[in-house]
Description:
- This protein has helices at about 25-30, 55-60, 75-85, 105-115, 150-155, 190-200, 225, 230-245, 255-265, 270-280, 285-300, and strands at about 10-15, 40-45, 65-70, 90-95, 100, 120-130, 135-140, 145-150, 165, 200-215.
- It is α/β, with parallel strands linked by helices.
- It folds into 2 domains: about 5-215, Spore Coat Polysaccharide Biosynthesis Protein SpsA, Chain A (Alpha-Beta Complex); about 230-315, no CATH class.
- Helix 6 (about 190-200) packs parallel to helix 8, helix 8 (about 230-245) packs antiparallel against helix 9 (about 255-265) and helix 8 packs parallel to helix 10.
Amino acid sequence: MNRTDSAGIVLSICVAVYNHRQYIEECLDSILNQKVNFPYEILVGNDCSTDGSEKVLDRYRDRVRVINRPENLGLCANMYDLFLQAGGKYVIEISGDDYYCDMGVLQKMVDFLEGHPEYFSVAGWMKFFNVREGTIRDDGAGKKPREYTLCDYLRTGNGLVMYGVMRNTFYQDRESNAYLGKGSRNNEEVKWYFYTLSKGKKYILPESVYVYRYVVSDNASNYNSTHSYLDTFQDYYADVRMMRKLFGKQYNFKPLMLKKSNDYCIRLSDSFRNIIKFLKIMKFGDAVSLFWYKCYLKVHHRQDPPKWSDPAYYIKG
């Protein structure tokens, strides 16, 4: 379905697929089994998979619009193009190796946005499925409903939950959001959290609504299997620098940069060689800022500067 003939579609569900042959059926079935009372479309971006994913997707062509990429775009460009093609009033993204565990969640999230125009998006927590260990951790257990803002993200560097159901502004905003398809190829989080939260606050449901499949294997081609902590930091840092260049006159990215950098510095601290590589990735000024931030945390019992708690600190103009 193209944007020109998508009248009446309420929700576009965008599925990013790369070598998900083992998992894509469970993902698509969890979408098709949703209990909803509105028209929806499913867009699948198959990013030049080499494992036979295309053959599995062929079985769903009567219910799913499959876009087989002629060349590998990377996760970010694949996602961005799907969102530009989405014709629904609302839009949501899910990876082809994840799946919904609540068959009423899409109805619940759409109903929420219909009744709460003050929010841009609504999401829920996840169940973390560690495939290697065979364990599932429910991150939604005991949680209370809450809202989440751009200032919360810039302060903590933690998006808490995925993007959820959002108001579909992507095509309309395409002249100003093209950066979403750029930067690091396969780690979208910094730029996507920033964009979606800059459009408005998010409501977080007090429950887990989907299962995130965490795969780390020598034979796998997914991001967690092919990227080390050092690689992941390099992607995060490159995107923070890109966002700072684009929006640094409007927003303060310093806490986000320091929190992310410190987190990865700690993770890599078991290897002197990795620490040297880590510091070589950073610009000199950022490395100095990280050093002083670590000193501050040491002196102040791991507590961040009080000014970081003020939302006004993050808005420059």
